[in-house]
């Protein structure tokens, strides 16, 4: 499958939130008297860690790509996703997204290149004041709602995890003048396993590069 550059832009925008502060939840009601939207989110888990199998679908207009991988969270420490692309019966690890309180790192494992930057160094995040705490609340299923309609996300498929609930599905939608982007995260095998490294160590031979270049190369593997 040949992946259009729109999907590259969509992936970068959706995962890094495109500098927009907005959200949308599946379960909500409108107060007829005040016309205010009220969120009804299941009781959040107090677990310190979450791991899951990830099935990620990216869409840009009529174009679509599906990736597998792992979804890992440690509260106040890291959001980590490893992405795989299936070729026949072989699963190829093509990339990693790692968010920590200090930096954002995107790794293109296929070409051995990466981008590691502080939030203030990324205009779309730094200028909007988006930091790690804001990002982790989204991936923990705990984000609030903003009136900005450009970027929205919805939680669904809530599952029991520890003493609370965790979404089994997170769907992002990004609207632009030319096309509509979607990223659908389906999570399975949820657990509170915390026995894994919170920081990714790069081997020798990795070359630093710009974020846009990393995302383009990462997606060009799937043709």
Brief rundown of the structure:
The chain has 223 residues and is mainly β. It contains four helices and 14 strands.
Describe the structure.
With 223 residues, the chain is mainly beta. It has one domain: outer membrane lipoprotein receptor (LolB), chain A (Clam). It contains 4 helices and 14 strands. The strands form 3 sheets. A 10-stranded mixed beta sheet has the order 9-12-13-3-4-5-6-7-8-14. The chain has a two-stranded antiparallel sheet with strand order 1-2. It has a two-stranded antiparallel sheet with strand order 10-11. The longest helix is centred in the N-terminal third of the chain and has 11 residues. It is globular. The N terminus is likely disordered.
What's the helix and strand layout?
Elements: H1 5-15, E1 28-30, E2 37-39, E3 49-60, E4 63-74, E5 78-87, E6 90-99, E7 104-108, E8 113-117, H2 123-126, H3 132-139, E9 151-156, E10 159-161, E11 164-166, E12 169-175, E13 180-191, E14 207-208, H4 211-220
Parallel strand pairs: 8-14
Antiparallel strand pairs: 1-2, 3-4, 3-13, 4-5, 5-6, 6-7, 7-8, 9-12, 10-11, 12-13
Distance between the termini: 4 Å
The count of domains is 1
Beta fraction of the residues? 35-45%
CATH T-level fold name: outer membrane lipoprotein receptor (LolB), chain A
Number of strands: 14
């Amino acid at each position: 499958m040949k992946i259009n550059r729109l999907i590259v832009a969509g992936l970068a925008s959706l995962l890094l939130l495109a500098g927009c502060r907005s959200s949308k939840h599946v379960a909500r009601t409108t107060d007829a008297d005040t016309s205010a939207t009220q969120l009804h989110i299941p009781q959040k888990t107090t677990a310190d860690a979450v791991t899951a199998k990830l099935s990620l679908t990216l869409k840009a207009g009529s174009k679509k790509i599906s990736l597998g991988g792992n979804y890992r969270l440690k509260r106040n420490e890291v959001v980590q996703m490893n992405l795989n692309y299936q070729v026949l019966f072989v699963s190829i690890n093509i990339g990693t997204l790692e968010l920590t309180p200090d930096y954002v790192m995107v790794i293109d494992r296929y070409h051995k290149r990466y981008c590691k930057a502080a939030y203030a160094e990324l205009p779309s995040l730094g200028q909007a004041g988006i930091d790690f705490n804001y990002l982790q609340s989204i991936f923990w299923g705990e984000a609030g709602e903003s009136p900005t309609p450009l970027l929205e996300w919805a939680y669904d498929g809530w599952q029991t995890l520890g003493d609370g609930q965790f979404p089994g599905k997170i769907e992002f939608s990004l609207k632009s003048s030319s096309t509509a982007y979607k990223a659908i995260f389906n999570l399975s095998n949820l657990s509170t396993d915390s026995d894994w490294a919170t920081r990714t160590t790069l081997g020798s031979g990795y070359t630093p590069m710009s974020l846009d270049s990393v995302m383009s190369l990462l997606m060009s593997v799937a043709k």
